[in-house]
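Title: Comparing notes on inverse folding

I've been comparing how different people in this forum approach sequence design from structure. To keep things fair, I'm posting one structure and asking everyone to reply with a full sequence. Here's the target:
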């Protein structure tokens, strides 16, 4: 990478070294999900949205870690632009002043971003994320697991299905789930070095 290859982006007079991280098209569709998981089109569409948002969250979390590792703890990572499609790094000197070592460090960061985007948009990642979180089930929530007072983990879509089978309608009202969920630490599985997190909601179950 040459210095002239490095993009910059910013607003209101502040310009940062940046990477264009827009994703215009995924290599899979809602139909791919519906066919693989044998679910309805509506469920597949929701699963795709949950999975994509989880991938976005993971990318920005990992970007902060990578930036700190490569450039030092003092840098900050921002999502810039109208669509949030620019990864901006604050805390670095003006690009024009960079020497070969600084350019090489940016090249490493840029390569990481490209590899991360390639994996986080792949069917392998999203298939595993949807499976781990059981998002392809009727009634699934974005945070589709909760912990009861005893610390046991339950799947919300499964509890909904049980409630419906028991004649309690379409919502597991008898569980007393909180309307506003606080997100707990998430479990994760590793695949090809990238995390696939089972997203959980931390709620109390009324007994």
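Reply #1:
Here's my take.
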């Amino acid at each position: 990478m040459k210095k002239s290859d490095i993009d910059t982006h910013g607003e209101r007079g502040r310009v940062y070294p940046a990477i264009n991280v827009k994703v215009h098209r995924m290599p899979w569709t809602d139909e791919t999900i519906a066919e693989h998981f044998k679910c309805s089109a509506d469920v597949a569409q929701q699963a795709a949205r949950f999975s994509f948002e989880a991938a976005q969250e993971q990318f920005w979390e990992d970007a902060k870690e990578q930036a700190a590792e490569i450039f030092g703890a003092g840098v900050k990572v921002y999502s810039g632009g109208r669509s949030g499609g620019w990864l901006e790094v604050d805390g670095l000197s003006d690009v024009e002043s960079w020497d070969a070592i600084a350019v090489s460090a940016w090249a490493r960061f840029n390569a990481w971003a490209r590899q991360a985007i390639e994996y986080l948009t792949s069917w392998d990642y999203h298939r595993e994320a949807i499976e781990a979180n059981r998002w392809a089930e009727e009634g699934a929530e974005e945070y589709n697991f909760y912990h009861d007072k005893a610390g046991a983990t339950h799947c919300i879509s499964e509890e909904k299905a049980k409630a419906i089978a028991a004649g309690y309608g379409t919502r597991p009202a008898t569980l007393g789930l909180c309307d506003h969920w606080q997100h707990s630490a998430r479990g994760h599985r590793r695949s090809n070095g990238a995390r696939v997190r089972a997203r959980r909601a931390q709620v109390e179950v009324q007994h």
